Amino acid sequence: MAKLTGIKVIDLSLFLPGPMLSMMMADHGAEVIKVEPPTGDPARAMEPMEAGQSVWFRNLNRGKQALALDLKSDAGRAQLWELLADTDVMIEGFRPGVMKRLGFDYDTVSARYPKIVYCSISAFGQEGEMAHHPAHDLAVQALSGFLSVNDGADGTPVVPGVPSADMAAGLNGLSAVLMALIGRDKSGEGDYIDIAMFDSMLPWCAHIAGSAIAGGASPQSQSQRSLGGAAFYNVYKTADDKHVVLGAREVKFARNLLTALERLDLLPLAEAEPGAGQAPLVAFLREIFATKTRDQWIEWFADKDVAFSPVLDFREALDQDFLRERGLLIEAHGSHQIAPSFRFASETDWQADDAPVLDEPQ
């Protein structure tokens, strides 16, 4: 039996963090009813499409039921109250204050159903000076400091490739909901969870922003080991204008590579302080990697114990054999889906459900 069989979830959220949270619950057996506005979740229209649905929408909403409700109408609100009668978890992602205006804030809902676990997801939390500030992932990354180190060699920040604040909020939300369900088993009462994208993102800086956390200066990418200042934790261009990385800073890997390159004399540089101290080694490696194509380097590194990887685009990454060996990318219902990233030995192989059409019968 799936771990969350018997848990009912009402999800009023749209786009990414909330739907990600509830899909992870649906993947593991929870009954998830996605309540959408009459016009539907805007993610339904996000291209590209496959088998008649948005790839984005399907990979964040599979296994759910979908119901269109106008929560500004008496009929819509009455139907939501009916749905909540036997609900374990309620998720919402509106701007702070909206649920109270609709009559479905936590105090009102829990007064009627005290066992409910109620999770709100927003950019900056439900209270405080930033609570009503509009923001999506990019703005949260900018205000949390992360965008400052998502920069190029000239120090200019660039748009991140991963919506980390969104994803962190979804993962934090899942963890908190499951903790609250465990707590309810002990106390008999539900709880309220205030998940902020900003709050969820901030702990991720502990390994890169130590100086700032301790009250000092902000880290600068080109002088930090994890941000581009270390020769053996860096990106290098190859002869065919593609890229490879050295992805571990342990001295043993530096020794192995420099021995193979017959430049063991450079090993002390790998142990120097990042930034200016390792700059000559970075320059040497740039020259070396520019002498072969990416594929030639893949072949060259095949028998060497060095933390090396080619930089792949998503087409190349998703075509790797080991993804299918681990069952990470599957074809079902005429479409491709990314499988859950965690599975349990006690359960049978996961099977993909399709994403719901709006107003699908319950």
TrEMBL record:
Pfam families: CoA_transf_3
Record has Ribonucleoprotein as a keyword: no
GO function term, MF aspect, one: transferase activity
Gene3D superfamilies: Crotonobetainyl-coa:carnitine coa-transferase, domain 1, formyl-coa transferase, domain 3
Superkingdom field: Bacteria
Keyword flag Transferase: yes
Matching InterPro entries: CoA-transferase_III (IPR050509), CoA-Trfase_fam_III (IPR003673), CoA-Trfase_III_dom3_sf (IPR044855), CoA-Trfase_III_dom_1_sf (IPR023606)
Alphabetic keyword roster: Transferase
Full protein name: CoA transferase
Species, as recorded: Parasphingorhabdus cellanae
UniProt lineage: Bacteria, Pseudomonadati, Pseudomonadota, Alphaproteobacteria, Sphingomonadales
